[in-house]
Amino acid sequence: MWQTVSPFTHAHRWNDEHVYVKIVTGGTYSIKHRGEVMSLRPGEIAVLDPLSGFDESVRESARQSLLYVQRSALRERGLPDRFPLIYRPDLESPDVCALREFVVYLTSQIGNVSDAVLERLGNYCLDLMHALFDGRGRPAPRHTSSTTALRATQVIARRIDDPDLSVASIATELNMSIRTLTRALRANGMSAMRYAWSLRLEHAAQLLASEPERAVLEIAYRCGFRDPSHFSREFKKRYDMTPREYAVSREAAREEDAAAGKRQSLLPSEDVDCITLDAQNLSSRSEILRFGRDS
C-alpha cells in the first residue's frame, strides 16, 4: 500500500528557508519530480528542495532519517543552497558513506542522549556537509581528514563517560597512529580532547538540569571526570557558576515555566496541527534533526 505526502501541502513545515536531506534506512520511498519517478532504497540519500516541487510516496514499512538544513547555514559554508533537481550524493565516496552513518547514528540517539550533546554533534555534522557535494560524482580518497574526524567524534560520543578516553585510545580504536589522527583533526579545526571536554561539560549541564537531585559526584563520574573537584572548577569556568548552583537555577527556571504554563492554560486556546511524516499516520518512521541557526 502506498500513501503520499507533498511538501507543498504542509507549507508551515516545508518552507523556503530549508532544504532537507533524506537517508532511507528501511523500505522504499518513491519521489515524483518533473514527471519522473525515482525510488530510494535503504542506504540511499537524496537532497530535496521544497522550492522545486515534488510528491513523495512511502511504503508502510519504510523508515528514514531526515535533516532539515537551513539555507543560510549552507551559504555561509560556501555550499549550494538551491537544488532545481533532486541531488543524489555519490555513494562510492567514503566521505559520503561516513557522513551517512554518522547522521543515522545521530538521529537514532534522539531522546537517548542529552540535547546539549546532540546539538554539539549536529553542529559539527553541519560543518562537514561539504562531504555530500565534494567531487560531484567522483569517488573521494579512501582516507580523508573529514572521514577521520567523523569517525573520531563517533568514538568520543560513545565513550563520553570513559575516564580513560585519550588521543592514544581513540587512535587505537580507529586503527591509525596518533600523528595521523591529530593531523586529520587539526585539518578540521579540532582537538580531540578539547572536543571531548566540551562535550562532557555540556552533557553534565544537561544532567544537572534534568536531574537536579543527583549528587555532583555522581554527575562527574557519569561524564567521565575522575576528580569531582576538577569537574567543578572546569564547570564554573564554562558556565560561571558551580554545578550545584546551576542545578538550583535550572530547577527554579523550570518551576517558573510550570507556573506560567498553568496561568496560560486558563486562557482560551486553539488547536495547532503540527505535521510530520509519522504524525499523519503514514506508517513510516522518521528521525528528524534540524540544522542551522534556528535548530
TrEMBL record:
SUPFAM superfamilies: Homeodomain-like. It holds the Pfam family HTH_18. Residues 150-249 form the HTH araC/xylS-type domain. InterPro entries: AraC_XylS_family_regulators, Homeodomain-like_sf, HTH_AraC, HTH_AraC-typ_CS, Tscrpt_reg_AraC-type_HTH. GO terms for molecular function: DNA-binding transcription factor activity; sequence-specific DNA binding. PROSITE patterns: HTH_ARAC_FAMILY_1, HTH_ARAC_FAMILY_2. Keywords: DNA-binding, Transcription, Transcription regulation. This is HTH-type transcriptional activator RhaS. The lineage of its organism: Bacteria, Pseudomonadati, Pseudomonadota, Betaproteobacteria, Burkholderiales.
